Amino acid sequence: MPTLNDYHDRLTGLKEKYMRYWVNPYSSAYADAHEQFHKTLDDQKKYDAMKTELFMMAVTLGIGAGLGALYGKTALKAVTFDKALNIVCNRNMNRVFNLMHTVSSSPSGSFLVGALWDEAAKKVGETVKTQVQALMTSVPVKDQTITNPTTFRNSLQNYLLDYVIAARDTCIALQDSKLSEGEKQKFANAMFDAPFFKKAPATEMIGPQDVAAKDIELSFYMVLLMNSDRIMKTTYYVRGAHEGKRVSYRPINVPTTDPKYPKPTSSHSHGPGYIEDTFETIDYISPGSKVAKRIDKLHKERFGSEFFKDATFFSWGFDANEIRAAEKMNERIQSKYLSKF
User: pLDDT digit string (tens) for 188-231?
Assistant: First the structure.
């Protein structure tokens, strides 16, 4: 039977599997997607406004399972929970919601030792126990992670190394304890059977890197499209001899399928010396021809048809139909990478 010493000896090979099949392809796919997205967008303000949602897409689409799922969960802690939950619910990101719930219900120690973690925690000492518990409480990323592919790769690699170190220290602490050989064997069996070891990838967790890069980039554009509607409030007024117009905007925070999705409204008011007519309409911000052409190219390469199916798109503009299509495409991409959640 494999022992704790055997587990310790196999950690290097385990780390190499995660590097080869998770860190390297995932970070490379992200770097490719990020570079192309920036080249196409040419608008830093738009990028900054969407940064939180882009970050959530990046960390969830590449998670796979096992360690990747834990990374996705802990990385999302970089986003204020209420804000993250609002984005998830407002965009109908059901699979991301399930991920946040499922992974959060499992302590990090269980990922290393399985069901015996509570028992093991009493044997390894406070230092190792605290070290393992920190894996699910510390945030492996910072604000600049999403904007810098190198930083993103480093965050993946450091997260992996933190788990390898925690596994090694847990293993050593159990081996050096005064436990009987039978008890040590019990913990060895548990560590070999725990997700960190048992679910280590043997193939690329995100599939072919070039395909994943296109999916990540396409998901970024879907975020852009889903953020392209807003309420425009226009008020025409007459006050004595003066007349004018006021225009203001506010965001729409529900998907097009939601019964609460706003509808055009109008109101009229008048009184001594004044008249006001107010109209609320849905204003749609076109992504522009450069972005639209890139979306069409990616969509055709991935799914065999262009995203903007109406050839008159560039003349008549952009409306809820495209946003609705973006919501469906977002779900389609998520269903591929988050099928387990």
Answer: 999 999 989 988 889 988 889 999 999 999 988 988 888 889 99
3-state helix, strand, coil in the chain (%, to 5): 65, 10, 25
Q: pLDDT tens digits, residue range 100-134?
A: 555 555 566 788 888 888 899 888 989 998 888 88
> Is residue 235 helix, strand or coil?
strand
SS3 233: strand
Helix (H, G, I), strand (E, B) or coil at 17: helix
Whole-prediction pTM = 0.83
Q: Answer for the pair 62, 29: CB distance below 8 angstroms, yes or no.
A: yes
- Cα angle 157, 83, 23 (rounded to 5 degrees) comes to 15
Q: 3-state class of 266 per DSSP?
A: strand
Comparing CA positions, the residue from 205, 223, 136, 122 lying closest to residue 170 is 122
Sign of CA dihedral 317, 319, 323, 326: negative
Q: Which residues of 89-121 are buried (b: 16+ CB within 10 A; e: fewer)?
A: bbbbbebbeebbeebeeebbbbbbbbebbeebb
Q: Count the Cβ atoms, other than its own, within 10 Å of residue 47.
A: 17
Structure tokens at 234: 């226009």
Instruction: Parse the chain into domains and list their residue ranges.
Output: 4-224, 229-284
Q: How far is CA 167 from CA 110, 137, 139, 156, 248, in A?
A: 11, 17, 19, 17, 55
